[in-house]
Input
Amino acid sequence: MSALIPLTIAIPLLGAAISIVVGRWHWAQRVVAVVSLTAVFGISVALLIGADDQGFIVHRDGGWPAPFGITLVVDRLAGLMLAVSALVLLAVQVYAIGQAGEERRRVAFHPVYLVLAAGVMGSFVTADLFNLFVAFEMMLAASYVLITLGGRPDQVRSGMSYVVISLVASALFITTLAWIYTATGTVNMADLSVRIAELDPEVKAMLALAMLVVFGIKAGLFPLFFWLPDSYPTAPGPVVAVFAGLLTKVGVYAIIRTQTLLFDRPDYMGTVLLVVAVLTMVVGVFGAIAQDDMKRILAFHIISQIGYMIFGLGLFTVAGVAGAVFYIVHHIIVKTALFLVAGLVARRAGSSRLSEVGGLVRSAPVIAVLFAVPALSLAGLPPFSGFLAKFALADAGLDAGEWLVVGASLFVGMLTLFSMTKIWSGVFWGEAEEEPQYLAPESERIPNRLGAPIGMIVPTAALALSSIGVSVFAGELYDVSERASIELLEPRLHRRGPRRRRGRRRSQVRTHLRRRGRSDRRRGRRGRGDAVNRFAGMRASWSILWLIVLWVLLWGDLSVANVVSGFVVALFVLSFARLPRLAKRRSTQTARIRPFALIYFIGYVFVKLVESNLVLAWEIVTPTNSIHNGVVAVPLRTTSPISMMVVANVITLTPGTMTIEVEGDPAVLYVNVLHLHDLGQVRRDLLHLEELAVRAFGSLEARQQLAEQLGEDVPDGVPVVPAGGEEESS
Output
């Protein structure tokens, strides 16, 4: 059974190579593509059955043991993702063949599409972070070609935004991998789950947030989603369908996998994920109801529905993660089907704008039915799969005491139903208010009642029926999701005990803190005057104003709707932002980012990188036989783990220098310098780099240590810790 795992990657890549060879014959390319994806789908189903029976299946390439060799693993979560992704990839492939658009005009479509499929499969089965990066790059490189296929000006413009953001995310990913490898010495996920637990809490928190940002860009989380609504709708129909259904879910899968396996989540991380989930849901649905184009409405709903998945993860309970996994499976099928229907509408009516299309329920009733099934499921109406998925998440949220998040999810569900109703009344029920700007050629118009070629109708209907199948077999599917959730959280459950009781305790503590805060405000809080209270109110007002301005700038349109929605988002942000401060007292050992110091630090590092590259280039152009290299020992002045890690990584990334080791107490940094001409200057540069890192990232305790070493006054707000251990205000 383990030999089947690499075939999920090898078969699409082999099919892509064969498709290039037979590029002169379109029929041969189509046969190769369909046979390859059919084989992958069959293998994926077999792996899912095997993983559910055995728990997990492991394949070690070349027989090398982990963490030294390449390891591929399929557990229940990976098996579910493989099976549903293979189904969607096959359906979209058949749809593209039936559409005969860019697929017929571009020889590269099938090879690039198969490379995309291999990248998606590789992302699910890899067991180490570096190969996850390789699979992501394989997938993204293919997506760069597909999203601009056709070469229209709007495609190229939107595609460039997508490419730039993806490259930035990839750069952040490889940088985070460097940090992780420097801190632990491995990138194997199973090995990391043990070694990361031994790191300092500050370092673990920074790595967890870095991974969340990296995969959050790819998943479209708030506030990292801005590239998505403009990039997806301009792509060809089959391409946007597979992008909407799969690519963002690969990012969500990576978030779930890393946050549950690698990091032992403290309470604040669950709060962060829940805040991000609510903001993603609310912002996405507000963006959807403001649109007048079917594809753009569905694109914003990608963002909104991602919030539900992060909601389930943020609970960190078996029921919550199981609901998130079930929701992912449902959403991949439903969202892909909806975008395929959008392609049918555009082909039939010549446009997807609500004002330019109408009456399709009479002229093309089959398309209307194909839209109604996944749309009702997306809105969460019973008895469709969306209702069951949202019910599972709401039940898990109520059980964990997250009433506010559950209420937000129900509110977003009502707005989702409103936007689906808006599409139905505009495209299918009402009449067109304007003439479409583009009409399909006479040869492409389908006069029969189907409204589109049979090759496009059949795969769309297959996905619509699959969404019904998810609701029919919801019990069995949820059982598999629950077993996958137990696998993901089992180490956490053994260490912390049952989560349900703990979730209720957290809700009681938060309720007590909120009540105490209200009573303190009524009493005016002893020691605080009216001036302080007025200042706090002014600060909240300015925060709301700035958030509204930022919201309007993000949309690029000053309108009443954007101002009102910005005000609502600002209230959500400010209400959630208070929770971490109520839940935990700030510690002197907690790392804090200071914006201005961070900007100065980044500028200094950039200048040094440019300088080092110029020196290295000069050495290459004017080679000499005298190379003065050596190892420099630099005693550090602070004990901040995060500052030491940042300094070590910056040194390693700088050409001509490499961090060898950090050891001892107090810590000593050993650096290998390629061109060692002035030992004193090297030490001064490294100590200055440490100083800037502490000022930008260091904790209050680290800043106090630095100030004592430099003979400076202790900065305001830094508590002085005398020998007795009691804190005094400086």
